[in-house]
Amino acid sequence: MGLMASAQAQWTVTELAPTGSSYSKANGGASGHEVGYAGFGSTYSAGSWTGTATSWTNLGPAASTNSDAIAASGNTTVGYASFGSQGNAGLWKGSASSWVNLSPAGSDRSEALAVAGSTEGGYAVFGSQEDAGIWTGTAASWTNLNPTGSSGSYVTGISGNTEVGESNGAAGLWHGTSASWVNLGPAGSSYSAASAVFGNVEVGTAGVSVQNQVQNHASLWTGTAATWVDLNPLGASGSAANSVFGNTEVGSAYVGNGGYAHAGLWNSTSASWFDLNPTGFVSSEAKAIWVSGHTEYIAGDGITSNGSRVALLWSEPQAVPEPSCLSVFGIGALGLILRRQSKLGAS
Questions:
Q1: 153 burial level (CB within 10 Å; 0-12, 13-18, 19+)
Q2: Structural domains in the chain, sorted by start
Q3: List of residues 6+ apart from 195 with CB closer than 8 A
Q4: Residue 292 burial (C-beta neighbours within 10 Å; 0-12, 13-18, 19+)
Q5: Per-residue pLDDT of the chain (347 residues; tens, 9 = 90+)
Q6: pTM for the structure as a whole
Q7: 212 and 226 in contact (C-beta within 8 Å)?
Q8: Any bridge partners for residue 47, and if so which?
Q9: What single DSSP character describes residue 232?
Q10: Helices vs strands, H then E, count in the chain
């Protein structure tokens, strides 16, 4: 465990797998900490780090069987915890004992997938239908965002007063109400999902027909379906954009030998793809990007040559601009599309 040289100049990669864990993932982060989960024996627990494997803090609530921390903003972390067979959306404020159950009244299960400021986003299941929704810190604050006529939806990203996600197999966005839904599905795509938003930029993935076969292509939008940009790198057999910060998008693309996915980043064009797959890893994925102080961070995971899944943190020092050039940034999927086909949880 520890620091190792990145396969790319300037980037440093830190393995975050806690001692004794059999697998781990880093899903997100905010200033000063990273969040995700680690597996111990037959269970897995939500947790947070402060840049090293030894800094791991177990966030699994008392009596929970499994849990996962999925996103962070400030000192708030969101995700879910399972008590028996039911998964419950929830939030933490830095410790296992701070857990707040966000499951709406009458829901069968739920999951919080995004947070920005005092707003959490995700979905709740009522009967057999997943409904997108948002909270403001309590279960009673739940607002159902499922668009009229939709058979299912979920929120996966929040920035300001904009939520993004998916409804009826199409990427889209909301502004706090179900009626505000805007369909971002590109013309001709067989499906799509938005995974994150930063200001007026949304990212995700879309199903694109290539030589009569559908491929997942990393995607970028600026508020409408017509603004769709295909980010799939030249020669890649598929890709997904999972997060965005400023003019940088992160995710993964199938560019490696043997059909393995590599973590990487873009600067808003397919040609800007930059491979971040670390030395010694056969595959990897970047899940979230943010800046803290003068350092840019990317959270994700990779699979080693012996098949172990390890939480990873990429970091790169940022040049300090002259005062006249200072910019202001705010915190901002293929896995999203597959979510409904798998049980709530991690593996």
A1: buried
A2: 2-341 (2.120.10.30)
A3: 156, 157, 164, 203, 204, 205, 240, 241, 242, 243, 333, 336
A4: middle
A5: 333 333 345 899 999 999 999 999 999 999 999 999 999 999 999 999 999 999 999 999 999 999 999 999 999 999 999 998 889 999 999 999 999 999 999 999 999 999 999 999 999 999 999 999 999 999 999 999 999 999 999 999 999 999 999 999 999 999 999 999 999 999 999 999 999 999 999 999 999 998 888 999 999 999 999 999 999 999 999 999 999 999 999 999 999 677 899 999 999 999 999 999 999 999 999 999 999 999 999 999 999 999 999 999 999 998 655 443 232 222 235 554 444 334 333 33
A6: 0.90
A7: no
A8: 36, 58
A9: P
A10: 1, 29
Cα–Cα dist 53/311, whole Å: 9
What CA–CA distance (Å, rounded) separates 161 from 116?
9
Cα angle 140, 145, 151; round to 5: 120
